[in-house]
From TrEMBL:
This is UspA domain-containing protein. SUPFAM superfamilies: Adenine nucleotide alpha hydrolases-like (SSF52402). Residues 2-158 form the UspA domain. Gene3D superfamilies: HUPs (3.40.50.620). InterPro entries: Rossmann-like_a/b/a_fold, Universal_stress_UspA, UspA. It holds the Pfam family Usp.
């Protein structure tokens, strides 16, 4: 069985991974070990394709852009966050399921659906933050979007109820 688990910095995504490793993967299915791809999607970097640190924005007006050092620093910070998140997720998978990692850039809801289609996965697993209707309408919901747009079955793992 080929599975993708969407992982971000949230406790809900790690709970979804924990739930999946404890409840779905029981060693070997059909003689083949399960393979889980842990996918972390980070937002696009604010890369500016202009070499100088300032460009003309109109008559007598100059717009400042971040230097390449700032952009490189931002990219390194994103890579460190992704590495830390996926390292923690890989540790959770050890001795339970074979796992690989993938880091992509873009909108998480779009990228998870796109990757699951490209990789022809059997199941996409995402956590749920438990947003109410109003917050979900304004903020959007990755899990809701994936449930409606992914071309494979999608499992949304809700966190345990808080007392």
């Amino acid at each position: 069985m080929r599975v993708i688990v969407g992982i971000d910095e949230s406790d809900e995504s790690f709970y979804a991974l924990e739930w999946a490793t404890n409840n779905l993967f029981n060693g070997i299915v059909g003689g083949e070990p399960n393979l889980v791809t842990l996918v972390h999607v980070h937002p696009p970097s604010k890369r500016y394709g202009v070499a100088p640190s300032a460009i003309p924005a109109g008559p007598g007006v100059t717009a400042a852009l971040p230097s390449t050092g700032v952009v490189d620093s931002e990219r390194r910070a994103e890579e460190q966050i992704s590495a830390a998140v996926l390292s923690r997720a890989l540790e959770m998978c050890s001795n339970k399921v074979k796992a690989e990692t993938l880091i992509v850039e873009g909108d998480p809801k779009d990228m998870l659906c796109e990757i699951s289609e490209q990789m022809k996965v059997d199941l996409l697993i995402v956590g749920s933050r438990g947003l109410g209707r109003i917050k979900r309408a304004f903020l959007g919901s990755v899990s809701d979007y994936c449930a409606h747009h992914a071309k494979c079955p999608t499992l949304i793992v809700k966190p345990p109820a808080k007392d």
